[in-house]
Amino acid sequence: MVQRVTYRRRLSYNTKSNKTRIIKTPGGQLRALHIRKKAGSPKCGDCGNVLAGVPSLRPTAYARISRRQKSVTRPYGGSRCGTCVRSRIIRAFLIEEQKIVKRVLKAQVAETKKSGKK
C-alpha cells in the first residue's frame, strides 16, 4: 500500500503559496517538501525587457542582499535598461541642441530687423 503524505504546515488548501512535491527522506519515508514561489525577473520601466545584472528574487530576498547586487552602476541602474538610458540621454541632448538653435535663430531675426530699420 502507498504511504500517505500530508501537508507539514497549518494551511491545508492547495493554493499557489502552498505547493509541495514529494521527496524520500534518508529514513525511507515520503515527505511533502514545500516549494517556494518562483521569482519574477525585474523589468525595465520603459520597454519592459528583463534587466541584466539584477538577480531574480522574491521581494523579501532583496532586503537581504547588498545594494551593489540590486542594481547596475549607471544612472537609472536598477530600474531602466542600458538601451533606454542611452535613448534618454540622446533625447535630452537633442532637446538642448534644439533650444540653442532656436535661440540663435531668434537672435539672427532680431539682428536683421535692427539692421533693416537703419
Automatic annotation (TrEMBL):
InterPro entries: Ribosomal_eL34, Ribosomal_eL34_C_sf, Ribosomal_eL34_CS. The keyword DNA damage does not apply. Belongs to the eukaryotic ribosomal protein eL34 family. Keywords: Ribonucleoprotein, Ribosomal protein. Gene3D superfamilies: 6.20.340.10, 6.20.370.70. GO terms for biological process: translation. It comes from Rhizophlyctis rosea. GO terms for molecular function: structural constituent of ribosome. One of its GO terms (cellular component) is ribosome. It comes from the Eukaryota. This is 60S ribosomal protein L34.
